[in-house]
Amino acid sequence: MLSSTRRELLQQAGCGFGMLGLAGLLQDEGLLADDSLGSRSLNPLAPQETHFKPTAKRVIWLFINGGPSHVDTWDHKPGLEKWHDKSIREYAPEFTNTTGFFKNAVGNLMKSPFEFTPRGECGKMVSSIFPNLGKHVDKMAFIHSGHTESNNHSPALFAMNCGMPRMGFPCVGSWVTYGLGSESRDLPAFVVMSDPKGRGLPKGHAANWSAGFLPGVFQGTHLSPTGQPIDNLVRPAQMTDITQRNQLDLLKQLNTIHREQHAAESELTARIESFELAFRMQSAAPEAVDLAAESASTQKLYGVGDSKCDHFARQCLVARRMIERGVRFVQIYSGGMENQRSWDGHSDIKGNHSQFAGETEQPIAGLLTDLEQRGLLKETLVVWCGEFGRLPVAQKGAAPGRDHNPHCFTAWLAGGGVKGGVTYGSSDDVGYKAAENKVHLNDLHATMLHLLGTDHERLTYKYNGRQFRLTDVAGRVIREIIA
């Protein structure tokens, strides 16, 4: 029987420990082949098996950029009428001027300037700014107890999109396409549309639809709001189909040789696939975004042609055409940069929210109707949400507005296995803070992934020696809103 002292054992195993350390260092420096996609490396967007049977196959996220006021949209607060024009410190002594963003403009509590009436069979109290969308409340599950950490747009946008209040992390759409792949080979798996009225991109710009440390093939494809939706979609007149195909074949051969010599450069696989996808998109994408094939009645349903909402109506209709053709994730931003160019109603909350609701509510109502009529709603998860809510106090000015509120926001979900006509969680009497059954944005993300058949704790990616996930080390599935 052989025996070894502890010193002899360490001497014999020491080289092995060193090799383990060396392997970790080489991995961190990108000098080992990245096998994170396994057999998917040849087609990283190939459809993937889910962890369990999904109720939703695709997502349309209507991002209400700027932070919509929950107490002026979906979260009816009779208590605000009782407390109107009184100091919030009488109601909440812990309130400080730094809760919002403009600490020198804090006014008294302010009731909503909009009338609320019961809508649908569920009797949901809905603001008068949603005359069309209010007809669909029996399809929606409302969350009135959402909360986040940041009261500043950029970090709050990153948090809502990526689960972290700083840039550099993959967004929800990237995690979804990484986990599930795409049902279309001719269109991007993840599409983003932004404000086309010259009001700019949301704060943080493309970092909101970035793939972060995931392979670049999973990042969102931004459709330009004006002109050609995708750059270089139309090839030069002198370029024939055969000529372009020959060029791509040669490029692919050269890139493949380079990839074999530099196996650790996983980005090259995404680049090769992006060239091939771009070639296929030259025929598929123009057809997908061409609304001429839609009937006049369908276009009217969305509000196409109505100067008030035509731009958003077209984007909602394109979203339906995209998911119909296998696109996995579509995100549409309502509004551009801060203040009056988005739902960021620091002044004149009545005018601001009336304007942006007028731009969006008929198109969204049309989208829900159209999806249901086509049998697509039951497999399509529709999400309405911004980056945070707004305070129940007035922000001082000639026409009072409302400041940022990270302590409470409202979101609603429809389709994709969600219960309709239900409400989960609540805010306090004036809508200052989430009160009952609080929902963190990690919980919202976990629920979205669950509806897509994905366990948020198992959807991980190793980066810098650590396993990351969208919900980090938190997240609870809100099973109470799942049918």
How does this model look, in words?
The structure is a single chain. By secondary structure, the protein is an alpha/beta fold. It has one domain. It is 32% helix and 16% strand. It contains eleven helices and 19 strands. Strands 1, 5, 6, 7, 8, 9, 13, 14 and 17 form a nine-stranded mixed β-sheet that branches. β3 and β4 form a beta hairpin. α6 packs antiparallel against α7 and α9 runs parallel beside α10. The longest helix has 25 residues. The chain starts with 5 loop residues before the first helix and ends in a 15-residue tail after the last strand.
- Helix-strand sequence: HEHHEEEEHHEEHHHHEHEEEEEEEEEHEE
Mean pLDDT: 88
The value of Rg in angstroms is 25 Å
Q: Given the C-alpha coordinates, what overall shape results?
A: globular
Give a topology summary.
Blueprint: H1 6-28, E1 58-64, H2 78-83, H3 88-91, E2 106-109, E3 116-119, E4 124-127, E5 140-147, H4 153-162, H5 172-180, E6 190-193, E7 221-223, H6 241-261, H7 267-289, H8 296-302, H9 310-324, E8 329-334, H10 349-373, E9 380-385, E10 389-390, E11 393-395, E12 404-405, E13 409-414, E14 422-424, E15 426-427, E16 434-436, E17 439-440, H11 441-451, E18 461-463, E19 466-468
Helix pairs in contact: 6-7, 9-10
Highlighted features:
483 residues, alpha/beta, nine-stranded mixed β-sheet, two-stranded antiparallel ribbon, globular
Summarize the structure.
This protein is α/β, with parallel strands linked by helices. The chain is 32% helix and 16% strand.
